[in-house]
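Tutorial, part two.
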Amino acid sequence: MHAPSPRTGAASLQGSVHPVAVPRRTSAAWITWVLYGVATFFVALVVLVLWFAIARPVQVLPRIEPAPAFMLTDQDGRWVSDTDLRGRVLIINFAHTRCGERCAVMEHSMRAIYDTLRTDGRLGTRVHLVTITVDADGDTPPVLRAYAARLGVETSKWIFLTGSARELKQLIGGGYGVYYRIEGNDVELDQRAVLVDGAGLLRAEYDGARLDPAIVMRDIGLVEQEANSSEVARPIYEMAHLFVCYPR
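Running the prediction step on this input gives:
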């Protein structure tokens, strides 16, 4: 037998060696681009959050909770429910006709809001004022009607409501969380007013003793702007809620 020549052996070895595949860089590049895209997205999100927090391009009122339902009697003895007033912004205050000087600020402020809304044409069509008494025994429909006449307001646009002591306590004390106590002729009341939007959501609460008509009018405008916004603008308003862009 002849031993294979060195040249033949080398050729045989070379023929049996397979070429080594060079790894492609495509997958690595793809991962890099994905990571770059994710990083860019989060940077843009942070910038957007900061922009909304600082610039506050759109302001909204918080959606606090659904306003309590009610079925009460107005100054003319007719039943009025919360659903009867749906679709309109409501400025509701809680008071009683014997409050006098203790409720003077709230009474004057409500009247100023009434006059402003009447002047610009929104009163009775887009916005209603509602006074709910806490005094079931003293504030009967005739008493409320006389009170409205003393204020010189139209009861189709500023409604005065009463009910039984139990109904009022459940609504005002339980539903709205307003404290009041009646002992004989003495009425102790935590003066309060609220804004309810056309969808029946509680959007703002005010200290009645410091009720500022300018702030209430601003808030009515914010609620109306949001309600009347276009489909294109809706996501912007939702972002304003998400980023808590509330008036300061």
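Strands lie at 65-66, 71-74, 79-81, 89-95, 127-133, 158-162, 180-183, 186-189, 192-196, 201-207. In part three we will examine how such features are distributed along the chain.
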